[in-house]
Amino acid sequence: MENQRQLSSSDEIDLIEFIILLWKKKVIIIATTFICVVIVAIYAFTAKEQWTSKAEVIAPNAVSLNNYLTIRREYARILGSDFDVNSLSNSLFSKFNQLLYSLDERENFLSQTEVYKLESVGKDKEQQRVILNKLVRENITITKPDEKKDSKALWGGVQVSFSAETPALAQDTLKAFIKQISQESLDYNFKSFLITYNEKLTDLRFELNQIKQNVDIQRNVQLENLHRALDTAKRADIKDYSKISGEVENNLLNIIRADTSIPLSESPLSDNPYLFILGEKYISAQISAIKQNDIIYPPKYYQIQEQITKLEALAQKFKEGKLETNAYTYLSSPDYPVVKDKPKRLLIVVAGMLIGLILSIIYVLVTSAFISRKKEIN
């Protein structure tokens, strides 16, 4: 018990001596702490600031797709096919996501921005390359919400952020970046659509030409058969229709009646050995009518012709007008940051003060111990 009291008394004496020692060396402690505070304060108030603007985007809706949606719908309507708005939206947003992560796209964009120009002024090419690489890899951040923790993940969107030296620069640069990536996505999708459009137009023109060629060939064959029948009628000296009995007459009359109601390609007058019986007058009239009148094509021909006309008119719409379409919809647009990321000046100053205080106390204790040791030796 007596030993414990002595130890307790000794600890109290040591603590008092420690406090007295610090008080005696207060000038050194205050001076050291002040110097550390000044040093970190200089850093805190001269270091480059960093502000981060954030935005959240999801797949584009009908409003965002704007006139591009109108064009795609009209294209499907002309061809009589179904059109899925969600498919177009997902296709655009998928490409948008892909380009967001592309380092090449980031580099192409950032190399033209005010952020890069400000940081690269007076730097050589190697330093400029380092600055650009840092901006590409560190200043742009893409984050997908965690489905387990964030309800916004159900929207299937992404969070995009950009850091710069001023709030306005961070916000403006992020807006421009999202806009450019959106335009790149739209251009890619539109080029893919143009390939499909041109292929379809080529196919329709080819099909139209095939129908025309077939009908022209059939017309020429019919005329040739009629000329042959006319020649036979002249040789047989049949001026007008000769009535004949039996099955031949009935068949021929049926052929004549049917010829006005069926396509040229299926006309029995195209090749019939009994045509000459109609006589020179009728055959000549038939030849004259075929030559003078316009060719009547099958319905399919006019349907294709109408489709081609409408597709060509549609092409004028997207050639003359600009596509005002976004490959995204904002869940929250780029914000104007009000709290900077760094430097945290107050924290830095407090940390500097603590470091100065600790260093000065260590210095006082070490020097005091060294002096005491020296006295003991002497």
Automatic annotation (TrEMBL):
One MF annotation (Gene Ontology) recorded for this entry: protein tyrosine kinase activity
Transmembrane segments: 27-45, 346-371
Gene3D superfamilies (alphabetical): FepE-like
UniProt cross-references to InterPro entries, sorted A to Z: Bact_polysacc_biosynth/exp, LPS_length_determ_N
Domain of life: Bacteria
Keywords associated with the record: Cell membrane, Membrane, Transmembrane, Transmembrane helix
Main localisation: membrane
Name of the protein in its database record: Wzz
Organism expressing this protein natively: Gallibacterium genomosp. 1
